[in-house]
Amino acid sequence: MKKYLIIVLTTLATLTSLAPVAEARQGCGKGFHRGPAGYCRANRGPRPPVVIIPAGPRVGIFCEGRGYWDGHRYWRHRARHHSGWRYY
Fold first, then answer.
1. How far apart are CA 65 and CA 41, in angstroms?
2. pLDDT per position as a tens digit, 27-86
3. pTM (2 decimals)?
4. Is 88 within 8 Å of 78 (Cβ atoms)?
5. Cα separations (Å) of 41 from 26, 46, 60, 67?
6. For residues 27 and 23, what is the distance between their CA atoms, to the nearest angstrom?
7. Rounded CA gap, 4 and 1, in Å?
8. DSSP line for the chain
């Protein structure tokens, strides 16, 4: 009886160790890859280059006809105040 139990356990161990190898060989084919859920997904081509668009005016810059930009709105005048600028 012990011999049969040992034979069955070794047979099951070899069969379970072969199962992942069989699934790993199943590929998606050229131009595809495995997604997070295991499904095949198409590879995307090259992505367009990133274009950096400058933001609005920099803080403290005078814009002709508008005034000084403080990050929130335009002010007509500015003056030194402690360690920075005061807009009014």
1. 55
2. 788 878 888 888 888 888 877 888 887 766 677 777 777 787 777 788 888 888 888 888
3. 0.29
4. yes
5. 14, 16, 50, 54
6. 9
7. 5
8. -HHHHHHHHHHHHHHHHHHHHHHHT----TTEEE-TTS-EEEPP-PPPPP-PPP-SPPTT-EETTTEEE-SSSEES-EEEETTEEEE-
